[in-house]
What does this fold into?
Amino acid sequence: MIVNLPIHEVLPQIKNTLLNHPTIIIQAPPGAGKSTLLPLELLKEEWLKGNKILMLEPRKLAARSVATRMASLLNEEVGQSVGYRVRFENKISKQTKLEVLTEGILTRILQQDNALEGVGLVIFDEFHERSLHADLALALCLEIQQVLREDLKIIIMSATLDGALLSKMLGNAPIITSEGRQHPISYSYLGNDSAAIHIRMLDAIKRALREQEGDILAFFPGAGEIHKTLSSLELLQENSDVEFLPLFGDLTFKEQQKAIMPHPQGKRKVVLATSIAETSLTIEGIKVVIDSGFSRVPKFEIRSGLTRLETVKVTADAAKQRAGRAGRLGPGVCYRMWSEATQLQLIENRTPEILEADLAPLLLEITNWGVANYKELTWMTQPPIAAMTQANDLLQQLDAIKENKITDRGKEMLRLPTHPRISHLLLEGEKVGLSSLAIDVAAVLEERDPLLKSESANLALRIEELHKWRKREHFVGEKTVLERIDRTSLQISSLLQKVLGINQRFSTDYSFYHEQVGRLIAAAYPERIAKQKENDLTRYRLANGRIAKLASDYDALDREKWLAIAHLDAGTSNEGRIFLAAPLNIDHLSHLYHSTETIRWDSQKGILIAQKELRLGDIIVKTSALENVSESKRNEILYQTIRSEGISILSWTDETIAWRNRLLWLAEVNTEESFPDFTDVGLLDSLEDWLFPLENIKKREDFKKLYLLDGLKTRLTWQQTQRIDQLAPEAIKVPSGFTVPLTYFSDGRNPVLAVRLQEMFGLTDTPTINEGKTQVLLHLLSPGYKPVQVTQDLRSFWKNTYPDVRKELRIRYQKHHWPEDPWKAEAVRGVKRNLIRG
It folds into this structure.
């Protein structure tokens, strides 16, 4: 029998709108009947033409419960007109016209039938949760609707979604709102507390039992806190008219239904639930809600490379959704385990999973769909470019995609509803005859570490613990975690048998090589294959170029030269910490090797390396000398080396420095002239034009053997060379008849002419260069080449200073001629003999 609920009030509007619009948005609060009555009513529509309705729910429990509720309204068993499909389970038949699915199942259906033949309507329920699968499924359904199926209808439903924004993204899709029948709710804020969540929830439940009437729904972050609280409540339950019932995803459907349905003996119920009870479920009799303020959401974990659940503060929209559960039957009460001030600081809406998730599964689905550019699809939130790039890199390493197309291995991986890493591991295990072990390794990777406090990161030890637990031998691992791992192993084994026809029995023998575990981990994490550093046994270089350190300084894994790493954190200073890994026989991975010819400069050793390298990612496995090195490639590397290490790596003789300084000086003081740039920057920019030959350069010392001057001179034309000699001569002829070199300075200071005073007799004025624009700076020297005077005014020196200098020089250098009149004296070099002393 179909009951009357608030959704009935807008049913005519919904039906009329669907006749003229392919996509509509429905906003309705919990309890309005949008998840149960609406789909049943739409089954009667003529435009459906006998086609099916598919309705997506974000959780298994919601899918089962909603399907069960609709079947009961039709007085049928589940699997007749209404059925459901979830991971590892389905209840449908040829008569089924309305299927309730979890989101990942719809993606699989779309991949198998990209036109959705036989489907007339797809309903996205509780879309505000914005899971990755929901966003992907909607993008693909919109693609089908736009390209292949104009007749396909889409309904997006939510209680808290921003309908106006969604409508705009969908081309102004119509919005229909059902007000529902929400009764008033009073709030009691219990304040912030540092105590553990299960302790605070225990106190809140006791308080609510004392202060309120009716059944209670308490929201916990996860099953762990529920179990702890239930243990403490056992004493209250004895000889009481209250029953405490858990509600979370890992319970059997029968156990879940026990929490949802009215108590058969009429006892008062306290339901301890995760966020699974936020939406799409009607729990009979609830008048009180207790909200812990936390939930567990999927987050991409860099450490494991997989998506895991993380405990976070509840968002404002989720808190509102939870509180609404208390106002279904009449006025309700909500206890919130935070303060009113904290309430005002809550984030308004939950972050779409697509912004925080590992997008490798999504990209694999899109590639299989045949879309080369993911931006072509209609996304409610665009996938982040960096995350998609990372996903692309991983899938190529897993041989799942190549040149933006899915490979045969990628198609095989898609058949398994697991992360591509795990799918690849399982397929590789089957290929090399290690399927049973691969199943166990996959299960350990997907669950918590059963040896969390172990000093060893060796994942193979976890497999041994699992096998001991199965044989009921002495084990030290956490029992509940080992149970979960074993249950996951059974599920994976069943999946492999169903999808690939692989029938495996679990082994209880752990006398296998640990290296085989490493081989399987390497299949899932090819970028985390690691080689031990020679100078530090606890540190490893990964195939992706990173450095990682064993988390424990006493880990026996430090005896292993090669590791395959499963769990790794980001660490600090670009160095990660290794938490789960296994020894690796590198010979098992020869199919991953790639050969390269490398010509590079080793700056630490100061040598040119030219070799053939057998590599595994960034790791060099083996090297051999490279013969017949390309001259152009070698020169390119050497030029890069000089630019990197600086111009000083070359041999700068006094002769070369003096010649270069002439040009630098002239460029500084005479900007009217045009000459090549001989600064460090200019020379480094033009190395290819003047620095040669380089064929004998093999080590840093060889750079010092290069003669630079000839190469530098090639930068000048003949006319430029002549002009430089005119403006900045290398030397000046002095009155003695000898040519004396000039010393130039690159910063534009006046050039120095260092000459013995006797050679300047007879010269009246200071010599000039640069066409008379620049006077040289005279360093007048004694016969012993000691400085006598520094001047730029030779005339003034002869007139005012020379007489005093002469007196001192006559005493010190008695064999030399020191005339009284330097203007008329003969300039000489050395001793002028047979002269009468003046």
The first strand starts at residue 23 and ends at 27. Confidence is low (pLDDT under 50) at residues 834-838.
